[in-house]
Design a protein that fits this description.
This protein is 60% helix and 6% strand. With 247 residues, the chain is mainly α.
Length: 247
């Protein structure tokens, strides 16, 4: 079974609309009432953000269920209907808002809500993949960051107990359309996904010294990625996407 770039992009566009709706509403809230300063204002912002994370998180989870079930059906796999993951808890939303209001940047606060929405969809995909012992891969979209590129280069992995950390997917960040895809057998192919090409990009950018797994392990140990300069990886990434647009 082949999942075309057109079909995959259509799914991502729908997810993006849900994410953007929550982000925009949080941004308008701050524009109207100002950046929360007092604890009372912060609590009010948390309540509003929690409502957004719940409403739009449920929509993102439902879209992920639809894509998951459609993939299973097209793969000829008989499975129970996928189950939506839980949306962000009040504690998780409060932590996100309290952490971002300190920046004084409304876009960062709003993006934190968007991330909570995206997390509900990604969690849905991975939790069902664990349930059904499916394989998953991180598929980049658009001119993605170097970190997402490294995740994409890891290829297909079997979902298991270590797939989720603390009940959530890892590596989810705001303002990003990259997400996890699943497959139930090796015959399933996503035309927009080529992990070998991403690995070659990384090897070219690091003069053959590192592969994606090496870089991710270093990223996990230090925020500076081992003190090395990976600007070369970003340069190769930009050139790759520029070339892709002309193909």
């Amino acid at each position: 079974m082949t999942i075309s770039s057109t079909a995959w992009t259509a799914f991502l566009v729908r997810l993006r609309k849900v994410n953007d709706a929550a982000t925009d509403k949080m941004l308008k809230y701050i524009e109207r009432y100002g950046m929360p300063q007092t604890q009372e204002q912060i609590n009010a912002a948390i309540d509003y953000a929690f409502g957004l994370a719940t409403k739009y998180g449920e929509a993102a989870a439902e879209l992920a269920c639809q894509m998951y079930d459609a993939t299973a059906l097209a793969s000829g796999v008989m499975l129970p209907a996928s189950e939506p993951a839980a949306t962000a808890t009040m504690h998780e939303v409060a932590k996100a808002i309290q952490g971002t209001v300190k920046t004084g940047n409304a876009n960062i606060v709003a993006a934190a809500v968007g991330r909570q929405v995206k997390m509900a969809g990604v969690d849905t995909t991975l939790k069902n993949a664990v349930r059904d012992e499916a394989e998953f891969a991180w598929i980049p979209h658009g001119e993605t960051c170097a970190y997402c590129l490294m995740l994409s280069a890891l290829g297909w992995q079997k979902a298991g107990k270590k797939t989720l950390k603390g009940g959530h997917a890892e590596h989810v960040h705001a303002n990003c359309d990259c997400t996890y895809a699943i497959r139930f057998n090796e015959s399933t192919r996503y035309t927009s996904y080529n992990p070998d090409k991403y690995n070659r990009m990384i090897l070219d950018a690091t003069d053959g010294e590192y592969d994606a797994g090496d870089l991710l392990r270093q990223a996990g140990r230090t925020s500076r990625w081992g003190g090395r300069d990976y600007s070369g990886l970003n340069m190769v990434r930009r050139e790759f996407y520029a070339d892709s647009e002309t193909e």
